[in-house]
Amino acid sequence: MPSASPPEGVFAALAHPTRWELLTLLAERGDSTATALARELPVSRVAVVKHLAVLDRAGLVGARRSGREVRFAVSPGPLDATARWMAAVAADWDARLAAIKRLAEDG
User: Nearest 5°: phi and psi at 69?
Assistant: First the structure.
């Protein structure tokens, strides 16, 4: 098994459908405000801000002030790290399954 621990914070943040949709919207459209994002979802702006805070704590989005607005954008680093972790887990399982197949074919 890969030695690095799984990125639990990323998985936990993405487990909620609204947060998944927020991240998808930001990835597709680029940076945006909470108000603009709330117009796209069936939740209030306050709920969007709370969900964005969870994504921010997981490192999945970053916020920057632009005048009176706060704009949010995807931060790809944690997603890249999660993809690498998942690829390592998959490679480990592939190696295990190949070994089982060899044993079954040889025995």
Answer: -95, 150
- CA–CA separation, 65 and 103 (whole Å): 59
Q: What is the pTM of this model?
A: 0.80
Structure confidence by residue, pLDDT tens digits, 30-50: 999 999 999 999 999 999 999
Contact of 82 with 7, CB cutoff 8 Å: yes
Residue 73 near residue 31 (C-beta atoms within 8 A): yes
Which of 1.20.1050.10, 2.60.40.420, 1.20.1600.10, 1.10.10.10 would CATH assign to domain 8-106? 1.10.10.10
